[in-house]
Design brief:
By secondary structure, the chain is an alpha/beta fold. The protein folds into 2 domains: 2-162, Rossmann fold; 167-206, Methionyl-tRNA Fmet Formyltransferase, Chain A, domain 2 (Roll), CATH 3.10.25.20. It has 4 helices and 11 strands, in the order E-H-E-E-E-E-H-E-E-H-E-H-E-E-E. The strands form 3 sheets. Strands 2-1-3-4-6-7-11 form a 7-stranded mixed beta sheet. A two-stranded parallel ribbon has the order 5-8. Strands 9-10 form a two-stranded antiparallel ribbon. Strand 1, helix 1 and strand 2 form a beta-alpha-beta unit. Helix 1 packs parallel to helix 3 (124-144) and helix 2 runs antiparallel to helix 4 (179-188). The protein starts with a strand and ends with a strand. The mean pLDDT is 95.
């Protein structure tokens, strides 16, 4: 088995953890940020945190196809900033979906989901670490059972929602609101693009942290379709 991990963040902890895991399983695992690296030597391509369009003629080059990791309860939450939206919308669950690739964004058949109950108040950094741990678990489960071929579950477009790409200016908050009114928006942002207010012409950046929320056993949290 030879796997290509396609991502814009080649140093992400989930990619590094999977590389180590598959090395011990005698499975080839290459990390790349370029879709031009897709070739017939790959049995499987896994796309994670990737922001380029992948042309349809590349889909079937890997022998076992191409799958996508997306951190929302698809078909809800297609598109951008799933971690931000999960926190800002006070979702009770955080879901990582593993789907077949499709021409339309985040619209392929669902193969697996991993569901995690999350606290209402959790920081972006904390949930991102949970996302990475969950991604490792769902990918390991998928690859270890890849011989159990499945066409997956078709997404119901009638139930779909889409989040557009956010801009840093959208993190501007109303200074007249109380902390309770804006705390989820503050927690949902990260240090690179923090929430902020403007007071008397001065930009004041706001960050908040919560007590670290740690995952328990995820083995019973995976749904297969």
């Amino acid at each position: 088995m030879n796997i290509l991990w396609l991502t814009r963040d080649t140093d992400s902890p989930d990619a590094i953890a999977l590389a180590s895991y598959f090395e011990n399983c005698d499975i080839g695992f290459t990390i790349s940020e370029s879709k031009t690296d897709i070739n017939q030597s790959h049995d499987l391509v896994i796309v994670s945190n990737y922001d380029q369009i992948i042309e349809k003629d590349l889909f079937n080059i890997p022998k076992k196809g191409m799958v996508v990791i997306h951190s929302s309860d698809l078909p809800k939450g297609r598109g951008w900033a799933p971690i931000y939206n999960c926190i800002a919308n006070a979702d009770k669950e955080f879901v990582v979906s593993l789907i077949k690739i499709d021409e339309k964004v985040d619209s392929g058949n669902i193969l697996m989901k991993l569901r995690i109950q999350k606290p209402r108040y959790i920081s972006n950094d904390n949930l991102r670490r949970i996302d990475q741990e969950a991604t490792v678990e769902i990918v390991k489960e998928f690859v270890n059972n890849i011989s159990n071929d499945s066409s997956g579950m078709v997404q119901e477009n009638a139930n779909a929602s889409y989040h557009p790409k956010r801009t840093p200016e959208q993190n501007k908050l109303d200074p007249d609101k109380t902390i309770k009114e804006v705390i989820l928006e503050i927690l949902a942002t990260n240090a690179n693009y923090p929430a902020f207010i403007e007071l008397d012409g001065c930009r004041v950046e706001l960050q908040a942290k919560t007590i670290e929320y740690k995952l328990k056993d995820l083995s019973n949290s995976i749904e297969r379709f």
